[in-house]
Design a protein that fits this description.
three-stranded antiparallel β-sheet, alpha+beta, 2 domains, Alpha-Beta Plaits, elongated, homotetramer, twelve-stranded mixed β-sheet
Chain lengths: ~300, ~300, ~300, ~300
């Protein structure tokens, strides 16, 4: 299979179940909504060493937010609901309650699983917080020095999927990186997914295990082109760089759509030689995304 | 005292000791260095609910980085050295090692306190990591799918100060917010300090204690203008909004310089009525920054 | 009439006929498409002193561009078709042909009026230019040092409208300015219009005529709050600043939709006191946009 | 000669005399100063088809501007002083006078050549303009709907140089483009120069003359890699893309410093094969910049 002359390997991405909450952050301008969203989703690449996997899902205009102001949807992901609740408390409490002109609404009001994060954070009002119905939502109004902070009482979450991915094999580093940027541009326009790594791109794809007992994951040596002389690199000679785009999403369809759009975008960048995907031969993950099926 | 017609209250900001590490992140372009820096310093507003207080200190051009590439200096702050070491491990490991084309160098090579973060992260190379001298620095080279990651062996840290601050009292919310933006513009050009809150601005200044046993800090009711009718707001009638700029720094001088530049910038924005500062009457913090001394 | 507590004056915006061409610029990433678009639409606020009125209409993803790459739609406006043809030649030849990885496609392939700008620019290829069908479009391929430049043979244009507008009256400058930013955020998401002034906002609304023979337009003295003591300012006492948002569009509907979205956004910013519009009592323009009708 | 393994060809860039004015634009925040500066310098790549060559020189903080607000320095260049005066009138009048919160100061108060652009634009005040001394400058205050516009009476200009340049030869397009971005990052930090093309980069380097009588410049066929089969491309086989960085500056030293910094930055990007420069064998330009001398 080929797209725009780029070979698509017949392999699959392997994903894992994860819990996902969507929060809609609004602010006086899109720029201030983005500031809050970036702070709230930072230090959120992988649950291996971060308290959550988090990212900006998409920008939404005032016609799609409860208060009519510009907004940014973010997704916050954790392996279990208990950790997810802690993430919501800490990330909304520290990074959205504190953000100029921000408000926080649930992006999953219909979800079965609900956390009363808004209620818990409302105690910051020291008795002056007030529960009310606003814009058809059940919210808390917390007086702040800069005005009132509005936060929805409950935030919903669903069973989602982490680890959707594809690999971009390039003639050199800049070709692969620009293709990754083009891919995350495209994915950033879609709903239901995030690319939680820095700028949406992973520079350090890993394999399961290592030669050290204390380390459960290590660099994917078979794909390290600087290890050609060591005989461990299995990549074709013309490939000199591999970037990975990792995608978390609210469901299987959202991830498939983002993989498709991202790969199509990447294949339009000159110097991209091949698209592949990362998996563990199906031993670990429960969700498989075969590239040839996704791209149909 | 007045600056540009804005009254400067005769009060002081109250700061606390904190441990501070500086990391210099370089990348192929300034934009990619910023992506890594933003991810590494995100979810880092206050140690109350974040694993660290972190922010971008300043941008540095290639003439001031070990590898001659564009760079961004970040500061990471924790209450103790043990937590700071964990922050360095997690934030550099998850957000810089994973960031496209990034490298990480110590921004405090002369500091007495040193952490061997680079050495510890190098095990990700699964035996193929190599220690070498590069650009006059003792670094590790870790093979990645996208190329080699270079990280300095040791990262230094010093005793710094958190909680430098000033308050901007505005005729309305947008005047105070724009002044806060102008202030963080100015502070962002200076070395030695960060403004760790979203966009550099705190919307939710707090007081110590609350009416709830489980909550140690709550909204600063005396400065909440929506509580005027409740009789708890002590602000003048013409003030309708207060934003706070919180500054962490490597030492007293750096914080004073940033307070001075920030306040001067804020006082040039129309609609700013008064500058004040947050303190706990000297009961808690060990560092006092009197506004009239700082602005001399 | 009121929106969110902000009074909407019962008046109308007065627009004028103008010729409008849409160009779709694509590039390897959205960022590079934006660089080309910004250069091509710069120095394009008013035909009084600029060679055209120009601006970014909206961002389009790869699913909506001929070559599947990310794109930016721009509108270029002139009083007559002759000037518009010259603008297309100069702005595409100097700012898009020269822009890294850019391509230029017609955004109005169905329009009756067509200019063969692509054909004319193709001579830059010095005999090596080639006409071909690509992506279902009739294009020229011009060899460049950095690769081939693709440009459509013909660019369409239509009879549009300039001078759609509304005025934001604020308690102070920052309230009115932030509201103008929120308005242009909203308008920037819509198709068919641009806000050609710097950052989408006009700081210097004008009246027809002046006391000088050589000057056909001058500052709108009746709305200058610094002229209160001179007795020429007719604004209410509580207003201290007025910003104008000027909108050009491909037709009446597009302008009405953008006025509606922009005004709704502006009315959500605290410190906005009133919305009005600029007109010349119907003496000059042929298009009237009554605010109360537009906002129905 | 080599830098970081990249060959530096023993050739020279050829520049031409041009007239250069520097304008310092200040605004309430750096962001608004940048909006004004971008609009004022847009559609300004080459005097072949633009009314001026213009660009952002550098960002300056409040400690270096007359009014203590954040600022952006721009350079505007024309072949003669008469055209330069017209450019100042139109670009400041249409893009800075109209820009929210902007003010305009001369960046060359000591220059021998001075234009009374501020005085001429002041008539927009319709008799209410006032001349006064402010911040030690001789300025005009023009009442606007959004507040008063402050502009210096006179703007200075000097004999500068256009066409400083270097060429980046890359293994592929993305390597050369990223290197060009890194170069313009570096040059953007320096004073005295601009890179007037889109994003600072030229995709369409030209040669003098063409096979068409009406066209005085055409694509540099000898460097077009898509013309290899036509036998006109003289580039080495491994080169597949060439980007040019063109630099205008206030004097010879400024251009040399920017060429040096830009080339050094470009040579740190993987996939860059060679640095060269564009000249006309000394037949046209009066300023020669030999790469080996510049890089000493």
């Amino acid at each position: 299979m080929e797209i725009n002359g780029v070979q698509i390997e017949d392999t699959f991405a392997e994903g894992f179940p994860i819990k996902v909450a969507r929060v809609q952050i609004t602010a006086v301008t899109e720029r201030w909504a983005l500031e809050a969203a970036r702070e709230a989703t930072g230090f959120g690449t992988s649950v291996i060493g971060c308290s959550a996997e988090a990212g900006i899902e998409c920008i939404v205009d005032g016609s799609r937010t409860p208060d009519g102001r510009p907004g940014v949807n973010i997704l916050i992901c954790n392996m279990g609901y208990k950790n997810l609740e802690a993430s919501l408390m800490n990330r909304l409490g520290q990074c959205v309650l504190t953000a100029p002109t921000a408000a926080a609404f649930s992006g999953m009001p219909e979800a079965e699983k609900q956390f009363d994060t808004g209620k818990k954070l409302s105690f910051f009002g020291d008795g002056y917080q007030k529960q009310l119905e606003l814009f058809g939502r059940n919210v808390w109004k917390i007086p702040l020095m800069s005005g009132d902070f509005v936060i929805e009482q409950s935030f919903g979450a669903v069973d989602g999927i982490a680890g959707g991915n594809f690999l971009i094999l390039g003639q050199n580093q800049m070709a692969a990186l620009t293709a990754a940027e083009a891919a995350t541009d495209a994915i950033g326009k879609l709903e239901g997914t995030i690319t939680p790594f820095p700028g949406g791109v992973v520079s350090s794809g890993s394999k399961v295990g290592s030669r050290y007992k204390f380390l459960k994951a290590s660099t994917n040596t078979a794909f390290c082109t600087s290890l050609r002389e060591d005989g461990v690199c299995t990549l074709a000679e013309d490939v000199s760089c591999v970037y990975e785009v990792v995608i978390n999403g609210v469901n299987r369809d959202a991830i498939q759509q983002s993989m498709k759009s991202g790969i199509n975008a990447a294949c339009r960048v000159p110097g991209v030689l091949k698209i592949s995907a990362a998996n563990y031969e199906g031993k670990l993950g429960t969700h498989q995304f075969p590239l040839h099926v996704v791209l149909e």
